[in-house]
Amino acid sequence: MSYADARERFAEWGVDTEAAIARLGRIPISLHCWQGDDVVGFERRRGHSGGGIQATGNHPGRARNPRELRADLEFAFAMIPGPHRLNLHAMYLDTDEAPDRDEIEYRHFAPWVDWAREQGAGLDFNPTFFAHEKADDNLTLAHPDPAIRAFWIEHGRRCREIAARMGQELGSAAVNNIWVPDGFKDNPVDRMGARRRLEESLDAMLQARHDPAHMLDAVESKLFGIGVEACTIGSHEFYMGYAIRRGTLLCLDMGHFHPTENVADKLSAVAPFVPGILLHVSRPMRWDSDHVILLNDEVLALAQELVGTGLLDRTHVGLDFFDATISRTAAWVIGTRNMQKALLRALLLPWDRLRAAEAAFDFTTRLVVTEEVKDLPFGAVWAEFCAREDVPSGPALMADLDAYQARVADRG
Ligand SMILES: C[C@H](O)[C@H](O)[C@@H](O)C(=O)CO
Ligand SMILES: [Mn+2]
């Protein structure tokens, strides 16, 4: 179906496809750098605990250095319509030096900023509290040893400074997301002590004020991780309380809750109490497996809540998946485009009609409308969006993905 015909079909429902396309074109999605190299990073020191996260698979083409990762990202950006952001982790520094985590400085990341400026992309940032000898006890900011806590506090403090400078340089606030793997494999007897230490460390780390136009703090909770099955110190309740008290963003990772929980439902529940939300859009399969996101019910529901509640302006959409069994660039492209497709579908819903039906307790109409509109030609609107943004779709996209993968397949 042509776009012109599709526009008319949507108009019959009172939906303006032009407005939806325009809104979608202003929503940046933050691509996570760690999908490109299986969460390895570019530090010269290696070989320590991974904090319970690990990519599985050995598909050829893993980016081995910043140059390769940037080339892969440039390709992915060319396949993804709309404004771009890159979510960097501190272990992806670009330098010949070998600073420890408590020694990193802005200059170690400056090449990323230069590159982002060239690309017209924003940057987000994350301290790296894993893959380091001082994280091998599965305790960092909550460690009982004050020297280890001090080390990680200094790392986190520096990361906030680096993120703030990135945001200032690029004229777009960098979200600096704090996730620590801290927890216990078996039942601890002093959960309270560990949580108090985490709270104190976070307070020390977040003491310096930074301009929110440059940097926004976020905290990310988790239900459990491999190796910390009995207790995660930074649980949802912990960080929900912390984000409210400190006024930070709250990060909701779709893989960090019990599988029966509905992350979409949480948005309107937490939004009144925190200044904003960071999403890690992911696909847990039985656990926090970080599969590439599909255009599935969970992602559609998330996008629908973002649009329907008006929370888009207060939400930063980031991705968090990593799959090393398929082309890493294709994973980025397909996952990101799925998030955008979900947002487009949400933007193309007849919201006024649905809200009126619900307000009138006419749940029959609400059901009929939600099911009937599923037959509308969303694909034609998506194809039009891609064409206007000069990115391929359909078979042309597949050909480009295959050609790029063939180019990187001989990386050692
Ligand atoms: C690499 C990220 O910091 C990490 O995936 C974190 O966001 C997470 O979700 C850990 O399970
Ligand atoms: Mn996450």
From TrEMBL:
GO CC field: cytoplasm
Binding of Mn(2+), residues: H256, D288, D290
Coiled coil: none
Pfam families: RhaA
Keywords, alphabetical: Cytoplasm, Isomerase, Manganese, Metal-binding, Rhamnose metabolism
GO biological process: L-lyxose metabolic process; rhamnose catabolic process
Cofactor(s) recorded in Swiss-Prot or TrEMBL: Mn(2+)
Cofactor note: Binds 1 Mn(2+) ion per subunit.
Reactions this protein catalyses: L-rhamnopyranose = L-rhamnulose
Main location: cytoplasm
Single Gene Ontology MF annotation: manganese ion binding
Pathway membership: Carbohydrate degradation; L-rhamnose degradation; glycerone phosphate from L-rhamnose: step 1/3
Transmembrane region(s): none
Keyword Electron transport: no
EC number(s) on file: 5.3.1.14
Subcellular location: Cytoplasm
PANTHER family: L-RHAMNOSE ISOMERASE
Cross-referenced HAMAP family: RhaA
Similarity remark: Belongs to the rhamnose isomerase family.
Known function: Catalyzes the interconversion of L-rhamnose and L-rhamnulose.
Protein name per its UniProtKB record: L-rhamnose isomerase
UniProt lineage: Bacteria, Pseudomonadati, Pseudomonadota, Alphaproteobacteria, Rhodobacterales
Name of encoding gene: rhaA
